[in-house]
């Protein structure tokens, strides 16, 4: 009887230890994908600042915080669902769930709580149009992209990229309570920028995606088709990036930066298309990937700078 009680106590202790998370605050921050969140916050801030109306600074701060938290919630739910493939890729195997620092159910609860809270607060404090757009963005990223498209089609990033393009539109709606042509253009800039940006990375990480069974374009269609698509989308992206200048809500500085940067982007995309083998090909993809981040930042930074300087 004593042995049975002792064994039961040991089992109970083991279950208790298993239910105690080893997560630290930094692990929960990592679940939010802070690097992605920083881009979300910046593009949303630009959308908020250049919208043709005013918003109380406190409400503006609440809107940006809710958009950031909603983006972080999407990242946590993405990591919860993708934990099985994250374990297989060198780029993601150190994330909190595959590394064993956060349990999947904790990440799920964390993501759902932040999702509901960010949408509710944005709706109650600012307006329900922006809250609805935020809710749709979270749904789109988690359900449409992560659960449906990512593992089923090589066009996953083309369609799924919409999720990352919504933040400036949400912020614009927070100020104006409308969706306008200008906010749609802000959306389209990121939407068209996403495929060449991520396909350049996919060329560098194709072995990871193949090991995890993710049908990224280089894995399914091959590197030649991927290079063709990068060049095509780079060409299609150019008029969209210049559109704010044409429509008048981007001024001379924006026109110069958008057109000049697009020329560099196209040249780098052409290099990716031209260089097909070995280290030169990898270097060309890495250069395009790096410049693409800089180019998007510059586009939004110049729009913000022109507004702050009243140009």
Present the secondary structure layout.
Layout: H1 2-19, H2 25-31, H3 34-50, H4 57-81, H5 83-86, H6 104-125, H7 128-149, H8 156-160, H9 162-165, H10 167-176, H11 181-204, H12 206-212, H13 217-220, H14 223-247, H15 252-274, H16 278-308
Helix pairs in contact: 3-4, 3-10, 3-16, 4-6, 4-7, 4-10, 6-7, 7-10, 10-11, 11-14, 11-16, 14-15, 15-16
Outline:
By secondary structure, this protein is mostly helical. The protein is 80% helix and 0% strand.
Describe the structure.
It is a single chain. With 311 residues, the chain is mainly α. It has helices at 2-19, 25-31, 34-50, 57-81, 83-86, 104-125, 128-149, 156-160, 162-165, 167-176, 181-204, 206-212, 217-220, 223-247, 252-274, 278-308. The protein folds into two domains: 27-178, Tetracycline Repressor, domain 2 (Orthogonal Bundle), CATH 1.10.357; 180-311. It is built from 16 helices and no strands. The radius of gyration is 22 Å and the shape is flat. It starts with a helix and ends with a helix. The model is unreliable at 1-5 and 7-19 (pLDDT under 50).
CATH topology of the largest domain: Tetracycline Repressor, domain 2
Measure the end-to-end span: 85 Å
CATH architecture of the largest domain: Orthogonal Bundle
Total number of distinct structural domains: 2
Query: Which CATH class of the largest domain applies here?
Result: Mainly Alpha
Output the structural class: mainly alpha
Family: Belongs to the UbiA prenyltransferase family. Protoheme IX farnesyltransferase subfamily.
GO cellular component, one term: plasma membrane
GO molecular function: protoheme IX farnesyltransferase activity
Transmembrane segments: 36-55, 61-81, 107-125, 131-149, 156-175, 181-204, 230-247, 253-273, 285-303
